[in-house]
Amino acid sequence: MTAPIDRVLAGLDGIRPAAEEFYRDLHAHPELGGNEHRTAGRVAGRLREWGYEVTEGIGATGVVGVLTSGRGPVVLLRADMDALPVREATGLPYASTVTATGADGRERPVMHACGHDMHVTCLLGLAQLMAMAPGAWRGTLIALFQPSEENGDGARAMLDDGLARRVPRPDVAFAQHVLPYPAGYVGVRPGSFLSAADSLRVTLYGRGAHGSMPQAAVDPVVMAAMCVVRLQTIVSRELAATTPAVLTVGSITAGTSPNVIPDTAVIELNVRTYDEATRRQVLDAVHRCVAAEAAASGAPKQPSVEHLNAFPPTVNDPEVAGRLGEAFRAWFGEDAHTIELQTASEDFSAVPHAFGAPFAYWGIGGIDPDTYRAAEERGTVRQDVPVNHSAAFAPVIQPTLDTGIKALAVAALTWLGADGGP
């Protein structure tokens, strides 16, 4: 008997042209987080055509399609839909020229600079193939299209809007992300995969004065400079060399004139860690360091520390990821890998955690293999291969699209195939 995955993927050649065209259209029409109305509408329309029970507007623009084919496990597959405020510089014929008004009221260029358009297209492609081959699998498939991943609030918004009451409880959940590896690459790992991320805004309070009379001031610019130096020692001097973490100060804002010492300075920073103990240690150290520098400077009051957003760590279930890794190796051969730790962050894990379901998250490559190989031979991968969030990042359509659809099929059918089970 033909294996379930072969039966499902037998329809791939037939849907490929339409899927590629859908991707180009989606790439040319990106939408910022929480405003994915066009994308969500197109997704919902396709799912309905294929017989899915569709719910729209979960967490503002989230879409869920549910398809059942007999009794069996419940598998949830997730794709994120939102784009970024980036001006596209890929030179592609289907490049975005879209602009949108951001939360601050400013008009911004918008681009799918992180590959979410590829994620949506891959999941839709798999959803169509599963609907075309109901006899090849048993159980329930949940196709979840999430808004506002980049803002870190999309998964939580769907949960707060009753997602757990609107869909069956999944036995297992999966998600994937296109990354700057050669197209065709598939990589998963048990345990820690993506870091937690915390973004903070620190406001330092000084006392303003004329630039010629610093003795009358408490200079928050100097205070901020000392904080930046001190903060860099948290990872390098307070964590073991075997404990991965990143602390980046991405923004310093102070003053309006070269001859005026301002009253305040603002630092914005980002922290990446892989477990809760390290996360708490680093965040506590940030509070301690900025408070100490303020005290050393004689600041009139202690700094305020505002938590802007937080992403949980993505920690794959070892059993699920192990089983999935075996399935990937069986299907993709030498293109299946154990991927290394990634310092990027995600909010996907909030969904399976809410259901108490195990999950696995993996990466697929999106860079033209010849381009990647040439850069590798030159030793210039870091310089020549665009990464996610770059204005030059755009996955090659093929074989990225086929790989993403196949990877989702392998994951789903490892549980939903004739011999599958939770």
Report what the structure shows:
The protein has 2 domains: 4-194 and 313-416, Zn peptidases (Aminopeptidase, 3-Layer(aba) Sandwich), CATH 3.40.630.10; 196-311, Alpha-Beta Plaits (2-Layer Sandwich). Helices cover 38% and strands 26% of the residues. It has 13 helices and 18 strands. The strands form 5 sheets. It has an 8-stranded mixed sheet with strand order 1-2-6-3-7-18-8-17, sandwiched between helices. With 422 residues, the chain is of the alpha+beta class.
Give the helix/strand layout:
Layout: H1 4-9, H2 12-28, H3 37-49, E1 53-58, E2 62-69, E3 74-80, E4 99-101, E5 107-109, H4 116-132, E6 139-146, H5 154-160, H6 163-166, E7 172-182, E8 186-188, E9 191-194, E10 196-205, E11 209-210, H7 220-238, E12 245-254, E13 260-261, E14 264-273, H8 276-297, E15 304-311, E16 314-316, H9 318-332, E17 336-338, H10 350-355, E18 359-367, H11 369-378, H12 381-384, H13 397-416
Parallel strand pairs: 3-6, 3-7, 7-18, 8-17
Antiparallel strand pairs: 1-2, 2-6, 4-5, 8-18, 9-16, 10-14, 10-15, 11-13, 12-14
Helix pairs in contact: 2-4, 4-13, 7-8, 9-13
